[in-house]
Design goal:
binds flavin-adenine dinucleotide; five-stranded parallel sheet; alpha/beta; five-stranded mixed beta barrel; FAD/NAD(P)-binding domain; Enolase-like, domain 1; 23 strands; globular; about 500 residues
Length: about 500
């Protein structure tokens, strides 16, 4: 199986190398001191990784970033001037707050079971935020260091495409300049999506950016949207003591998740005291009083009711950041949602102009943007580049975490594929039992005839780490038997994946 994959990849690589070589031949590489081989517009995880990789491949590279700090939405989610509080680095910020709030929650609810007694436990929110800011500042500075190390020219300012080989930049420090490039990569990412009739003021009605920077723990928090960001942010404030209600238009939370896992996940969040109003829409918002009054009604229409909150978090998805950056000046095509259309080599309809990350179709995830960035510059450099969107893992960083890769059971069924399912509950995993953290399960979906793994779905502590074994399995076309016959260290939660695979092709040992 592995050899066949290798042979197929080599064939694809040869075809791509020819195509990429043709592409770079259109423009050639820079020889003058002024012009770059690659100009990257946007310094998020897609853009900064593309810039570093391009420099590593020997291309003269410039990266333009409007915020003044690198890392994008993932690394610079913005700041709230009224509070003079910088909320840099969305992903690590969320991670830091999820970890801190989890520690508090564990201390409050679990330590006593383990014989650890604590009195006068309290949350010091400013200290928690300061810890997060410190961690994030270190990370953002680290990228600037990597730019210096790899000799990437960093231009701080707002860039606009002026021609297929020029970006005009309004510099942060004043004035303007034109950056010239043989190839331009648009990596402008995405922005918060609002909802009709709801104005995000980042005070009472906040986006994820504002929810990362609250200066007080809200007594009542309403989250509009039960996607992964809404649930993670809801979890943070729920653990810190907020009464959290999640309002969702759809009948389910995180619709892309495997149905069985999703049901258990919702039950687990409800056990943690988060409330859900599914099939419900917000039809009115009143911010005139101290808090916010939301008018809600069933998604299909019906009787209205009122929800009161101190803070409302609007978490209804993200929208590509592609307007106002000069796409129309040079004729770059987008779809109806504003996503830039690219071919398999990440090139737009304009020769030499590429796009990656949240600005193009595909999962809006930092690691996908990074993979896009690497593959895109590999193509520009005349090499092979490859991203398989079917094996991009997704993780919800609640506790326990929920991680998945590949197809859900519902997808496999809808595609008419004959399949087998193997499941293993964490209650039967010795490590999870020993640490008293046995909520969850591992579910494997495999092709009935070939036993090839089609999807893996894990709800477990550290599922976001365990999932990579499954990602590798899918990447190499492994069968459930391949994983089941692979020796796993004992006692580990990863053994639950081995057991679920055993259960898929034969029988699990420990249930
Ligand atoms: C709260 C939150 C939590 C998240 N958690 C996760 C997670 O746990 N895991 C995960 O994988 N993903 C997560 N994401 C998604 C992740 O942040 C994005 O998928 C990722 O940042 C996309 O990278 P990007 O480089 O395409 O775009 P972005 O990160 O949006 O970066 C684009 C950059 O381009 C700059 N820019 C835009 N226009 C211009 C211009 N004209 N001139 C100069 N610069 C410009 C912007 O300032 C920005 O810095 C989260 C997002 C949010 C909001």
């Amino acid at each position: 199986m592995a050899l066949a994959i290798l042979a197929r990849r080599r064939a694809v690589e040869t075809v791509r190398r020819h195509a990429a070589a043709a592409s770079s031949a259109w423009r050639g590489y820079a020889t003058s001191g002024e012009e770059s081989d690659v100009v990257v517009l946007g310094g998020g995880p897609g853009g900064y990784v593309a810039a570093i990789k391009a420099a590593q491949l020997g291309l003269k590279t410039t990266c333009i970033e409007k915020r003044g700090t690198l890392g994008g939405t993932c690394l610079n989610v913005g700041c709230i001037p009224s509070k003079l509080l910088r909320c840099a680095d969305a992903v690590p910020v969320v991670q830091a707050l999820l970890h801190s709030s989890h520690m508090y929650h564990e201390a409050k609810t679990s330590f006593a079971h383990h014989g650890v007694k604590i009195s006068n436990l309290e949350v010091d929110l400013p200290a928690m935020m300061a810890q997060k800011d410190k961690a994030v500042a270190g990370l953002t500075k680290g990228i600037e260091g990597l730019f210096k190390k790899n000799k990437v020219t960093y231009v701080k300012g707002f860039g606009k495409l002026a021609s297929p080989s020029e970006v005009s930049v309004d510099l942060i420090d004043g004035g303007s300049t034109v950056v010239k490039g043989k190839n331009i990569i648009i990596a402008t990412g995405s922005d918060v999506k609002s909802l009709p009739g709801i104005t995000i003021d980042e005070k009472k009605i906040v986006s994820s950016t504002g929810a990362l920077c609250l200066s007080e723990i809200p007594k009542k928090l309403v989250v509009i949207g039960a996607g992964y960001i809404g649930l993670e942010m809801g979890s943070v404030w729920n653990r810190l003591g907020s009464e959290v209600t999640v309002v969702e238009f759809a009948p389910d939370i995180v619709p892309s998740m495997d149905g069985e896992i999703r049901k258990q996940f919702q039950r687990m969040l409800e056990k943690q005291k988060m409330k859900f109003m599914l099939k419900t829409k917000v039809v009115g918002v009143d911010t005139s009083g101290d808090g916010v009054k939301l008018t809600v009604e069933p998604a299909a229409g019906g009787e209205q009711s009122t929800l009161e909150a101190d803070i409302v978090l609007v978490s209804a998805g993200r929208t590509p950041y592609t307007s106002g950056i000069g796409l129309e000046t040079i004729g770059v095509e987008t779809d109806k949602a504003g996503r830039i259309l690219v071919d398999k080599r990440f090139m737009t309809n304009v020769n030499g102009v590429f796009a990656i990350g949240d600005a193009i179709p595909g999962p809006m995830l930092a690691h996908k943007a990074e993979e896009d960035g690497v593959a895109c510059v590999e193509f520009i450099a005349g090499k092979e580049g490859h991203v398989d969107y079917d094996t991009v893992p997704g993780v919800v960083y609640t506790h326990p975490e929920v991680a998945s890769v590949g197809k859900t059971e519902e997808q496999v069924k809808a595609e008419g594929i004959a399949y087998r399912v193997g499941k293993f509950p964490l209650l039967a995993n010795s490590r999870a039992k020993a640490i008293d953290d046995a909520e969850g399960l591992v579910k494997v979906v495999a092709d009935k005839e070939t036993d090839k793994i089609l999807g893996v779905h894990i709800m477990a502590p550290n599922a976001g780490e365990i999932i990579h074994e499954a990602v590798l399995a899918l990447q190499y076309g492994a069968s459930s038997e391949d994983v089941a016959r692979t020796c796993h260290a004992h006692p580990t939660v990863s053994e639950a994946l081995k057991e679920a695979c055993l259960q898929t092709f034969s029988k699990a040992i420990h249930i």
